[in-house]
Write a structure and sequence with these properties.
single chain; globular; alpha+beta; five-stranded antiparallel β-sheet; Ribosomal Protein S5, domain 2; binds (3R)-3-hydroxy-3-methyl-5-(phosphonooxy)pentanoic acid; 11 helices; 401 residues; seven-stranded mixed β-sheet; 34% helix
């Protein structure tokens, strides 16, 4: 049975399009394959036949995962301040897992990237390692290598602060485990994806994998040990072996709906670069950066309060203040500043960069009467694409996991 995703409370639509085909076709950093690692369907290496799993031959399983936006608190979240993140249900990564010929092993097809490879031929690639770690997590049930085709596709811009890598990984984990007969809890999925992100992106806070795996607005705070050893979401065993020191994750209440425009600079930026630079600056000037992170933390705390009260007008200035602090932290860019400034000048309630910065996306909070004007201003200021996301009212259920 295909795995069903959790119910979605947000909807997104792409309302302005300036596609860059070259960018879309370029290889995904998360996939990380060289040309010679791609699979040539006509020259597949021989793989010893493995026992078949007890699944019906024609079965396939599909799953997807949402993109994400950090509403406020990025970077400071790495240093123990809170952040708020939202899933973007309308922008998704998809994975299909199907049985394949006995003895063929596991083949992956990244459809958007026009790339195919065998896990056995690319054991160290990010997706191959993720698949291997999922199989090892399920080792009680899967004691031999299954024969599978894994197809992935995504409409999430790559390296743009929208969680492309974590969403692709989450879709794969959902489809693969579903295909092999296991329904994992969001905490388990999050932990598997976090371990994968850690292998390839250094020291992520865990906010991306968390908001995408739970697919609901979250308040995220790293605590205690997790600040010293960044391997952590607090989850019950056996996830605890993957991420033994969990952060505090609380589902967020949103009392009134609001609309965000997401402007893409079209500039790709690997998360680890600005994150590494902020770390160097923090090490050089700890007092200055701790003070900046404190100010961000205070803004995020206020943002939570206004969201819970439904005071959307009060959210705007908090977002703009957060952007000014991100400028001081050193992670904005001329393109991001141009888009943020254009949105503010056109009447947005507030605007800021979102994600790691130096490229990627910004967001603008808009009222119904300024939405069209802000959209036009973003396009005029150079946005490669603009999406609109309506964040609906959200009341968390008492138990989130
Ligand atoms: O991967 P991005 O661009 O969404 O940025 C992640 C947010 C940071 O706070 C900059 C890093 C982190 O791990 O939390």
């Amino acid at each position: 049975m295909p795995r069903r995703c959790p119910s979605l409370r947000l909807r997104s639509e792409i309302i302005g399009l300036k596609r860059d085909r070259k960018t879309e076709r370029a290889s995904d950093a998360a996939t990380g394959l060289t040309e010679d690692q791609q699979l040539d369907e006509n020259h597949m290496p021989y793989v010893s036949p493995s026992p078949r799993l007890p699944v019906s031959p024609s079965r396939s399983t599909s799953a997807s995962a949402a993109a994400k936006l950090i509403l406020c608190g990025e970077h400071a979240v790495v240093y123990g301040r809170p952040a708020i993140a939202l899933p973007l249900a309308g922008i998704r990564a998809h994975a299909d897992v199907a049985d394949s010929q006995v003895g063929s092993g596991i083949a992956v097809h990244a459809r958007d990237l026009h790339r195919r490879w065998r896990v056995a031929n690319d054991p160290n690639g990010p997706i191959s390692q993720l698949i291997t770690s999922v199989l090892s997590y399920l080792e009680d049930q899967v004691t031999f290598t299954p024969d599978l085709r894994v197809s992935i596709s995504s409409t999430i811009p790559i390296a743009s602060g929208m969680g492309s890598g974590a969403a692709v990984a989450t879709a794969i984990v959902r489809a693969l485990t579903g295909h092999l007969g296991r329904q994992l809890a969001p905490a388990e999925i999050s932990a598997l994806v976090y371990a994968s992100e850690q292998r390839f992106h250094g020291t992520p806070s865990g906010i991306d994998n968390t908001v995408i795996a739970y697919e609901q607005p979250i308040w995220f705070l790293r605590t205690g040990d997790s600040l010293n050893n960044l391997h952590r979401p607090s989850i019950t065993p056996p996830c605890a072996a993957l991420v033994p020191h969990p952060p505090l994750i609380e589902p967020m209440s949103i009392a009134s709906p609001f609309t965000l425009l997401i402007g893409e600079t079209g500039v790709r930026s690997a998360t680890r670069l600005p994150v590494g630079e902020v770390r160097r600056r923090w090490q050089a000037e700890p007092a200055r950066y701790e003070a900046l992170f404190d100010q961000v933390g205070a803004i995020v705390t206020q943002a939570r309060a206004v969201l819970e009260q439904g005071d959307i007008a009060a959210l705007g200035p908090l977002l703009s203040q957060n952007h000014m602090l991100l400028q001081q932290i050193g992670v904005s860019s001329p393109q991001l500043d141009a888009l943020v400034g254009a949105a503010q000048a056109a009447g947005a309630l507030g605007a800021k960069l979102s994600g790691a910065g130096w490229g990627g996306v910004m967001l603008a909070l808009v009222a119904p009467d300024t939405r069209a004007r802000v959209l036009a201003a973003l396009e005029q200021a150079g946005a490669k694409r603009v999406s609109a996301t309506v964040v609906n009212e959200y009341r968390p259920k008492p138990s989130a996991s």
